[in-house]
Amino acid sequence: MEVMTSKEEGTILALTQNTYEFRDKVRLQKELATMKKDMDAIKRRLFDEPRETDFKTQESSGAREQHPGAKHRVGGE
Hints:
The protein is mainly alpha-helical and about 80 residues long.
């Protein structure tokens, strides 16, 4: 309490700077935590959830059944 009621400019300046630095660090930690949550959500969407391209590249189940022995040949046969 004695330090807080001090009239010394150096002490007041030091306390003010410490308070601002603490506030800024807390704010930064909150921002980093939010960014980490956002990054985790992006990773889940990219790697865990099926994507539209996954469906486009999958072969349909009936494609091979229609022509099981047919091969593509140059010349249209």
